Amino acid sequence: MIGNRGTVTEAANFNPDADAQKLRESMKGAGTNEAAITEILAHRTIAQRQRIKIAYKQTVGKDLADDLSSELSGNFRSVVLGLLMLAPVYDAYELRNAMKGAGTEEACLIDILASRSNEEVKVINDVYKKEYEKKLEDAVTGDTSGMFQRVLVSLLTAGRDESTNVDEAQAIQDAKEIYEAGEARWGTDEVKFLTVLCVRNRNHLLRVFQEYQKISGRDIEESIKREMSGCLEDVFLAIVKCIRNKPAFFAERLYKSMKGLGTTDSVLIRIMVARAEIDMLDIKAQFLKMYGKTLHSFIKGDTSGDYRKILLELCGGE
């Protein structure tokens, strides 16, 4: 599950008991030592943080996440609590939050479901059921509608072909069918897009995109923008972008979360926490390539206080 292109790597000479003790001391007495919390949690892997949680419970007799939750607030607290969770638990938690209460944060459903592997989606489904006593699919269908809902349900089945085979004749056929379902007709047959984009493997789809360009004279992303709108457009674009270059997809999401007025902290936090140990090095490289500025400089200019400090640590320097 964890990649080897992360900015967060295993801490050498790791001692969970010592870390638990330091965290305990950071919360003792008046005020909290946020710097100590950042120093430990931003420089330990998810696996190491689980061992710190166990050590904390053994030596203090309390739950580390509960203690930190009552001591901290705001965005800093959100990052810290996210770091203490296993990856699929964090994804399930984020999905649940996106659908809680009035309104839905569709961007969260898209970010997670369009970018995770079959295995990751299966584990998220299991965790969601266990933690929230409800099937994730039921939660999604209760909260979304129409074709957007159908795309998410398809992604939730975790049934994408993950082989590397390219069926040349099928790729040409797929490109032709997508073209005929969209650009070549009045109205759009979105099911055709779903069938190809949610089911075929990555290599095959890259070939379909090439072929599509030949037939239509347009990039597939451009056609999706012309043919669809709203969340459906967003989810299909996310799938295409993740197939082409996942780190570039996340780099763009981070850029958009910080550019202009205000920051979409939920997106910024989710990606920084979820990708820190997987492909943050690649996301940073893509960010620089796409926007001519470092991710580090963007975070620095867009956030403040302890929240800024912990994100910069997860970003791993310039």
Automatic annotation (TrEMBL):
What keywords sit in the KW lines?
Answer: Annexin, Calcium, Calcium/phospholipid-binding, Repeat
Q: Name one GO molecular function term.
A: calcium-dependent phospholipid binding
Q: Does the keyword Repeat apply?
A: yes
Q: Which Pfam families match?
A: Annexin (PF00191)
User: Per its UniProt record, what SUPFAM superfamilies does this chain match?
Assistant: Annexin
Q: Which GO terms describe its biological process?
A: negative regulation of coagulation
**Free-text comment about domains:** A pair of annexin repeats may form one binding site for calcium and phospholipid.
PANTHER family listed in its UniProt record: ANNEXIN (PTHR10502), ANNEXIN A4 (PTHR10502:SF28)
The protein here is known as Annexin
